[in-house]
Design brief:
With 284 residues, this protein is of the alpha/beta class. It has eleven helices and eight strands. Helix content is 46%, strand content 14%.
């Protein structure tokens, strides 16, 4: 099948990015949020993303205007009925995702594919909440969605090849580089990056060096664009914590156990860039 219409349920940072990406690449996109305030915030995110693309020369004014006319936002979940693909993009709560996927499954037609943007929850758990396990797939976009090229396409042992092919072809049409991976907690990206981020926090806790020095070692010594503390702040410290906790629950490997300092920052509400304070302080 060729996917022409996408619905995204949950339009936070990731969901709004997926809506923007679909709209600016010629697809019809519907974003679903739980409240009018959520819709207002999602509009701001999409508009800010389009403006950023314009200012950097990534998209033309004509394409940005086309994108603005190619997406709608609503609080009515039944609006997803006509979508070829529904992407669930709510936060990493397994029970919430299971309930939502079950509701999506009941609303859409038998040919509709369902995807989750989960970053660590085993996809097979989510697929089991639906009556179409063969048509459920993982689409792990990276933040910021419009800019990052990688998309992990996650398949379970029962995912149909046609579903994998359709979603992989879609990601290429969106200008992404898809990598098909098997369903394991953390997939590939987070399986590798989470221990790295946690090890940096532990080094800081132990007084090996201050956060600026640790970041500098990674950026100057390994030519990374940003160090682990800047990256954690960009991802969101609550998200880093929840990814780590979820993977620890699955693997029982101490490498994934959230360090006390990370827990403390999350409890303080210091979640990174989105709150203006994480390991660093941000203005605006």
């Amino acid at each position: 099948m060729t996917i022409k219409k996408i619905a995204v349920v949950g339009c936070g940072t990731m969901g709004a990015g997926i809506v923007q990406l679909a709209a600016q690449n010629g697809l019809e996109a519907i974003g679903v949020e739980a409240s009018e305030s959520g819709i207002d915030a999602a509009h701001r995110r999409v508009d800010a993303g389009l403006e950023a693309g314009l200012s950097r020369g990534k998209i033309s004014p004509e394409r940005a205007e086309q994108a603005r006319n190619s997406y709608t936002l609503t609080t009515d979940l039944t609006e997803i009925k006509q979508a070829d693909l529904v992407v669930e993009a709510v936060y990493e709560d397994v029970e919430l995702k299971k309930r939502l996927l079950g509701e999506i499954d009941r609303l859409v037609g038998p040919e509709t594919l369902i995807a989750s943007n989960t970053s660590t929850i085993p996809l097979v758990i989510l697929a089991a909440a639906t009556s179409r396990r063969e048509q459920v797939i993982g689409l792990h976009f990276f933040n910021p969605v419009p800019a990052m090229r990688l998309v992990e396409v996650i398949k379970t042992p029962v995912t149909e090849q046609g579903c994998i092919d359709a979603v992989t072809e879609l990601t290429r049409r969106l200008g992404k580089s898809p990598v098909v991976v098997n369903d394991v907690p953390g997939f590939v990206g987070n399986l590798l990056i989470v221990p790295y981020l946690l090890d940096a926090i532990r080094a800081f806790e132990r007084g090996v060096a201050d956060k600026e020095s640790i970041d500098s070692v990674i950026t100057s010594g390994f030519n990374h664009k940003m160090g682990p503390f800047r990256l954690s702040d960009l991802i969101g410290l609550d998200i880093v914590h929840d990814m780590a906790a979820s993977m620890y629950e699955e693997y029982k490997d101490p490498r994934y156990f959230p360090p006390p300092l990370l827990k403390q920052y999350v409890r303080l509400g210091w979640l990174g860039r989105k709150t203006g304070r994480g390991f660093y302080t941000y203005d605006g």
